[in-house]
Design goal:
With 428 residues, this protein is an alpha+beta fold. Helices cover 41% and strands 22% of the residues. It has a 9-stranded mixed β-sheet, with helices on both faces. The protein binds histidyl-adenosine monophosphate.
Length: 428
């Protein structure tokens, strides 16, 4: 047999990393509760057509797609949004709005593996369905900021733009949707010259090209001033003007909420996913050059999937990248004070009693391990010490005669004899 390793782009998480991943997942779930998002679980495998519909060329070409044994064209989900939109277009179509839905789990993209870029990665995903109001967009940004704060990350910055501005201008020039999509894809990759050339070649007027040219240069951390400059820039393009106004309202609400969020407006900002129709954003951190999360408004996807016209806005956070960011900033995990216990029988004949005490402790929600290697007390204690377990219970002959055991506090290095029926009280 060969020596097996993980498939390229796939990783094992050993206990230390698995712990951080779960920690972030817990925080994400807590944020979902705080904002009123209910958790749903959708399948990892979905129909290719659903996932590909509006994923955009970049993600579409990187899907793990295959025919199943029933000859269905399926794929591993590259994100959650299509699945949630499918649900809202079908099973949940009659649910009262707004619907706030949260999901967490693994997603798959055949990306080129590198630091912070994997082929299997984890997202926490939030979708707010049914509202076209700027307060919904503002909520998604505030929620993202809450998660970054909850995991203890510092100096996060948000980049915000609006698809409706760039598309609004292109639409007024009657550029086909396909051309618009390609131009947006190029802008997402910061290939602005190629995007502008494409627009020009598609027959757009000079004024359109120069307006787009000006927009892609327009960015700034003074958000209201930048929005003013955008307004100037798109004058007389009705749809684009409305989009800038919408961006202004979102930013105003975030400002009025008094959330401390570091935001910069970027008028030329585009994202790879094709379903976006409004505000889009990403959150980054200086030490990591890729996004920790991203999202935006997509008002037509549910309708495209056969549902009622339903405006929606959402975000997904990269849990793997948040872990990387925490490790880079050396953010400590909040310690949960845990009174872990190991039970060591002094002789083999006391193992049954050790099992009995372990059951009793676990019934009282005290995490408990039993020495299963048959090691001598000193060796077992050394091992417990190394793993920073708080208590050892030694089941010995002399104490058992009195229905007692030795309880050793491994941090204080003290021990005493305790009646078995009092042991829970003693530890708790
Ligand atoms: P996305 O920007 O494609 O958006 O992905 C969200 C986050 O997933 C990224 O910001 C990044 O942290 C993480 N991520 C993406 N690719 C990788 C990778 N190869 N390895 C590790 N992490 C990665 C979406 O997925 C949209 N569904 C977000 C959304 C929800 N928009 C509306 N609703």
């Amino acid at each position: 047999m060969p020596q097996f390793k993980t498939v390229r782009g796939m990783r094992d998480f050993l206990p230390e990393e698995a712990k951080i991943m779960k920690y972030i997942e817990d925080k994400a779930r807590r944020v979902a509760e705080l904002y009123g998002y209910q958790e749903i679980i959708t399948p990892v495998v979905e129909s290719y057509e659903l996932l590909a519909a509006k994923a955009g060329e970049e993600i579409r070409s990187r899907m793990f797609a295959f025919r199943d044994l029933g000859d269905r064209m399926v794929a591993l989900r590259p994100e959650f949004t299509a699945s949630v939109a499918r649900l809202v277009a079908t099973t949940l179509r009659n649910e009262p709005k707004p619907l706030r839905l949260f999901s967490v789990g693994s997603v798959y993209r055949y990306d080129e593996p590198q630091r912070g870029r994997y082929r299997e990665f984890w997202q926490s995903n939030y979708e707010l369905m049914g509202s076209d109001k700027p307060e919904a967009d503002a909520e998604i940004i505030m929620l993202t900021n809450s998660l970054m704060n909850a995991v203890g990350l510092r100096n996060c910055t948000f980049k915000i733009g609006h698809v409706g501005v760039l598309r609004g201008i292109m639409a007024e020039e009657n550029l086909e949707e396909k051309t618009q999509n390609t131009a947006m894809q190029l802008m997402d990759k910061k290939l602005y010259d190629d995007a502008l050339k494409l627009v020009k070649d598609a027959g757009a007027q000079e004024k359109c090209v120069t307006t787009l040219e000006k927009l892609v240069e327009l960015k700034g951390a003074d958000v209201f001033e930048t929005v003013e400059r955008m307004k100037e820039c798109v004058k007389n393009y009705k749809k684009a003007e409305a989009a800038v106004e919408n961006l202004y309202e979102i930013l105003k609400l975030i400002s009025e909420s008094k959330s401390k969020i570091d935001i910069a407006v970027d008028a030329g900002f585009a994202r790879g996913l094709e379903y976006y129709t409004g505000m889009i954003f990403e959150v980054t951190m200086p030490e990591i050059d890729t996004a920790l999360g991203g999202g935006g408004r997509y008002d037509r996807l549910i309708e495209l999937f056969g549902g009622e016209p339903t405006p929606a806005v959402g975000v997904a956070h990269g849990i793997d990248r948040i872990m990387l960011a925490m490790q880079t900033q050396k953010v400590p995990l909040e310690k949960r004070e845990e009174n872990k216990v190991v039970i060591i029988p002094a002789k083999e004949e006391f193992i049954g009693k050790a099992m009995d005490i372990s059951r009793m402790l676990r019934d009282a929600s005290i995490p408990t391990e039993v020495e299963v290697m048959g090691r001598k007390i000193t060796k077992a204690l050394e091992d417990a010490d190394r793993r920073q377990i708080k208590y050892a219970i030694i089941v010995g002959e002399k104490e058992l005669k009195e229905e007692a055991v030795v309880l050793r506090d491994l941090t204080k290095r003290e021990q005493k004899t305790v009646k078995i029926r009092k042991i829970i009280e003693e530890i708790a």
